[in-house]
Amino acid sequence: MTVGESLLDLAIQAGVLAFACAWAFMLPVFALQAIFPQHRATLERVLQTFGRDVFKLSAIALLLGALREWPYDYYTLLRFVVCGVAARDAYFAYQSAETASTPELQVRQQRRAWGFGLMAALFNPFIPVHLDRDTWVVLDVGAAVAICADAVNEFRSETEPGPTVSDQPLKRKETQTG
Which of 14, 112, 176, 177 would bridge with 93, disulfide CB 3.0–4.6 Å? Predict the structure, then answer.
């Protein structure tokens, strides 16, 4: 086993562990929401922030891990995780498009919703799409890049004041004469 394969195995194990830890953390929070409805908003904020990040990181690790040969169960887990992350992102992009402040932002969010919706359909675990291995490698890397870019954009929107890249309307450069 080469160093690259060892690092890939470690990344995959970390992704699966993060996925398991996320559920171990989130299930008690779901229970707490039922027991303490007066704290529902706070618990939902915790779930949204923690769950989103951990599941996205798990999806990225599993997608990049799919570059190696694995038993079929690995790909089934990958489909569940990626489909869930993509469906969630498609839903929130659709919601953002409904409340967009500009037509350009609305179009951008609609495209994001369609893209993640397509990803969710492609990685659907209930009616699997069967493609050859080479095609899946390209799709896995593309999905990992898309999820990573979306995570970076969400992180940037939470840490920086003002609009993010996806919130800014498309503008053309104007040339100044004078």
Answer: 112
Question: Does residue 164 sit within a domain?
Answer: no
Tokens of 54: 């951990």
Residue 167 lies in a domain: no
User: Is residue 32 in a domain?
Assistant: yes
Token reading at 35? 């027991």
Tens-digit pLDDT profile for residues 102-137: 888 888 889 999 999 999 999 999 998 999 999 999
Does residue 166 sit within a domain?
A: no
Q: Token match 């951008």: residue? A: 108
Give the residue numbers spanning the domain of 116: 3-159
Distance CA(153)–CA(156), nearest Å, equals 5
pTM, whole model, 2 decimals?
0.67
The total number of structural domains in the chain stands at: 1
Least confident range of 25-29, 41-45, 67-71, 132-136: 25-29
CA 5 – CA 36 distance, rounded (Å): 46
Angle at which helix 133-159 crosses helix 72-98, to 10 degrees, equals 40
